[in-house]
Amino acid sequence: MLKNLSIKNYLLIDDLSISFNNGFSVITGETGAGKSIIVGGISLILGKRADLSVNRDKSKKCIIEGVFDIGSYGLKSLFEDNELDYETDTILRREISSSGKSRAFINDSPVNLNQLSIIGSKIIDIHSQHQNIEVLNSEFQFNLLDLICNNEKRIKDYKTLYNEYKNKSNLLNELINQKNELIQSMDYNKFILNEIDQANILEENLEELENMQSSLSNFEEISTELNYSNQIIFDDEIGLNSTLLNLKNSLNKIAKNSEKYKLLFERISSIKIEVEDLGNEIDDLLNSLEQNPDKLNTIIGKIDLINNLLRKHSVTNLEDLSIFRDNLFEKVNTTKNIDGEIDSLQMECTTLKNSLSDISLKIHEFRNKVIPNLTKEIEHVLSDLGMVNSKFKISLKLTDEFYLNGMDQIEFEFLANKGYEFKKIREAASGGEMSRIMLAIKSIMAKYKQLPSIIFDEIDTGVSGEISKKMGLIMKDLGSKIQTFSITHLPQIAAMGESHFKIYKTDLDGHTKTMMVRLNENDRIVEIAKMLEGNNASESAYIHAKQLLN
């Protein structure tokens, strides 16, 4: 329920703070006094977009704040879903700067307008002849039926299965599309894979192959230079080995005379060993050297094949080519694997569809079962509201499509006068009729569920006499279940209120301001008398006003 409303610097309102009680409250005031301003202010904390010209004083912020007791609404999970702190006394606040920049808060946490609207819609409803009201919305229509037939558990189970089915179906479609794409490229991928595999080059070492090519291609030069090197080392007369032997022997003779000579001898000995090893290695290379044109051609062909494949597939080395090949292999084999996944998912989807169909049928049956009595109850309330010839019809059709809350399509149809055909409610009902229909439906819904606070904004336009009294009684009864406000011009309805608020204009400091005040018993008599006869109400009007209040 709305506990307190604070409005600062909004249109004709300077600074207004007023508290409300539960039950049925009426709000009255002369035309143009500012009743629509109050409704507009409340709409802003429910997420409505702000007009740039709402700031009364352009140098100050406009601040609208509502304090709500939401302890009985079961909204904790909704707050958690929106990552908001849940408080039993929740504060919705809207700030609009002089530049038109808007900020919104829930319990002092910044929120966007969508979040504010989501939370706000669960806390308070505003109904007017001039608004597109909920009754036109299929979600609301289903909620009405499901509330009365106690479908909550079945709907919850259905949604769980539905979400699972949608996820599985989406995955199935993705796999089918993936398979189709793979099939289209399958032949090409197989060709490339076979080309790489048949080349049989992934285990080769390109650097070694290039070295072998160089050796085979330069046999004559290498052979000549190696032989010459061998001769330099092992020639009997001038070879390095012979020379080093002489040097070694010479130093050996004097090595005993000094540590320095000994070190020279050891160094020469070491050099001689190294030279001998070098010579033996050159000898081995000479022995391994071969002149093989066929082998050379084979190696050249292999190198060319490797380089062609590297260029063709835009890779720089055999390791990357191997990775490319493995990816191709995976793609080729994925098609085989994907078939098994598709078959498995198709079976799961079929099972889920069958389960959804079963629970949808139960949901439909329970909905259908309550329609006759619900229709009669709505028609009964509408008759009390002066729509004695009106007929209400709820068309429920079981389809073969899965929707968010079952497989049904719903349509509320209405007939205002005898001798005409049923039409969709949006086509058949006027604004006043729509408001009365909503009042009838809300009064029924309140028997089954704790509804948000509700504001009826002049839905009694065009109603008078006995009908207005019955309308007031219905709203008063509704107020015994949920906090109910009625902005009204009718004294019969105003007299029904447990609390009575008056909106009026006054001139202060050279400016016209809208004010709002709670009326006591005597003030109510005066206000209702004025509603009966105007500002110059007669004594009989005051007597009548007292009678209405009693």
Given helix and strand content, the structural type is: alpha/beta
Q: What's the CATH architecture name of the domain at 1-123 and 452-519?
A: 3-Layer(aba) Sandwich
What is the assembly state of the chains in this entry?
single chain
In CATH, what is the class of the domain at 1-123 and 452-519?
A: Alpha Beta
Question: How much helicity do the residues have?
Answer: 55-70%
Low-confidence stretches: none
CATH superfamily of the domain at 1-123 and 452-519: P-loop containing nucleotide triphosphate hydrolases
Radius of gyration: 47 Å
Q: What is the straight-line distance between the termini?
A: 27 Å
The largest beta-sheet arranges its strands as 2-1-4-5-6-7
Would you count the extended β strands for me?
15
On the 0-100 scale, what is the average pLDDT?
88
Strand content: 15-25%
